[in-house]
Specification:
The chain is mostly helical. The chain has 6 helices and no strands. The protein is globular and about 45 Å long. The mean pLDDT is 92.
């Protein structure tokens, strides 16, 4: 199945994916947020398929501005749901690829800690997963 993504659609996908990593990094502000961001970003850079191509594009359209975690979440969580919705309409397999890519990225971000992730990171993981599944 051929997928047609507008520039806005691609921006939504990038904002959603990199925003999820940003939220995980913010959730670990007292720990190692730079390692969280690095591990999550490496996972996103390893994506394949259409999602991998979209995430690999060098652009300046990723909007992660916000003065608080809540402000960033207000933008990113709906973007995750929107990305899943638009991909499901055009190619359910690519929607699954996007979901899997984001989940791998947040899992990689969370594993920077030995043992279990902090309650804050676990809660952010839950919120991101719920946003992906809301579509």
């Amino acid at each position: 199945m051929s997928i047609t993504l507008t520039d806005q659609d691609k921006s939504t996908l990038r904002t959603a994916a990199y925003g999820a990593v940003t939220l995980m990094s913010a959730a670990d502000a007292a720990g190692k947020p730079h390692k969280v961001a690095t591990e999550g970003s490496i996972a996103l850079a390893s994506a394949t398929g259409l999602v991998g191509h979209v995430l690999a594009e060098k652009t300046r359209d990723i909007n992660l501005n916000g003065k608080s975690v809540a402000a960033i979440a207000d933008h990113v969580l709906p973007a995750l749901t929107a990305a899943m919705s638009l991909l499901k309409k055009q190619d359910p397999a690519e929607a699954d690829n996007f979901r899997g890519t984001v989940l791998i990225a947040i899992e990689a971000a969370a594993r920077t800690h030995l043992g279990r992730p902090s309650p804050t990171m676990a809660d952010m993981t839950r919120k991101i997963t719920e946003a992906l599944d809301a579509a």
